[in-house]
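Customer ticket, subject: "Can you confirm the structure for Phosphoglycerate mutase?"

Message body: Hello, I'm evaluating your service for our small team and ran a test protein. I'd like someone to confirm that this is what the system normally returns, since I don't have a reference to compare against.
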Amino acid sequence: MMTASSETFKLFVLRHGQSELNHENIFCGWIDAHLTEKGKNQAKNTAKLIRDYCDTNNIKLPEIGYTSRLIRTQETMEVILQSLGKTGKFEIISAVADDLQNVSFPTISSQEQENGVIQVLQSWRLNERHYGSWQGQRKPKILEQYGDEQYMYIRRDYNGKPPKVDLNLEMIQENNEKGALTGYEFKEPNRHQKYHEEEAKGEVLPSSESLSEVVKRMKPFLENIILRFGKEQDQDSCLIVAHGSSVRSILKVLENISDSAIKDIDIPNGIPLVIELNKSDFGLVRSFYLDPESAKINAAKVRNEGFEKSP
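Agent reply: Thanks for trying us out. I re-ran your input and got the following:
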């Protein structure tokens, strides 16, 4: 592996560890699923890979973290930081796209720095793609309903988009929840409660998304928060814990992947990817997985989801 340059800004990017719904072969989307034990172990392994890489290349550990607003990314980040001997100070960035460039870099006290506290900024713009009416549904069931071609088009094509969800049903939280009285076995949290800060700022949140729409809502956060803070603070690296679709979106923007080629990119759970950019202009230098063999094997498993029986 080539030695990392201090003239580059390195993004350690990963899809969260395995969640309870990943394990069940279910479209998770904006549903808040917790990590499984396997997912927590993947996060611990991620921390080891990052530490080994930083030690080998004589660079500092990531100086700031970013997650989506979904609990599985926060839990992954917490396990990684704990394994690195650090603690996250979580803060929600709720500004609309046009105001992101006006958000100031959050401060951490010297005492917090000494105690290993780092800022972790959270944004819905890093959320998983909203899978509409597919959300909470088992992948083999959707595959059977739509057929191979349409299933893969909606899952992987840049403009493929599931039908919209009925949010009036999706967000009902039943007392002593035991199942699908509303037709939805798993549901996202009531967004007027979970995302009240965003809605108060005027954000219009989706009820279904294509990957192209994920790119559109993610790109302003990448450019005006992650990359801007990296430049202003002269950071060497940051840690981003996101989702399959939001990681694919980051790759598409930074690596200039074509609309047609992005359908062939699959993101495995819990294996860190390093995206190295020139500090001067954020031009791409290279990108690579810290465990490329495992990434290749597990990315293939992601592509085949729905075609194999649930574990």
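A couple of notes from the result: Residues 211-232 form the longest helix (22 residues). Confidence is low (pLDDT under 50) at residues 178-183. Feel free to reply with more questions.
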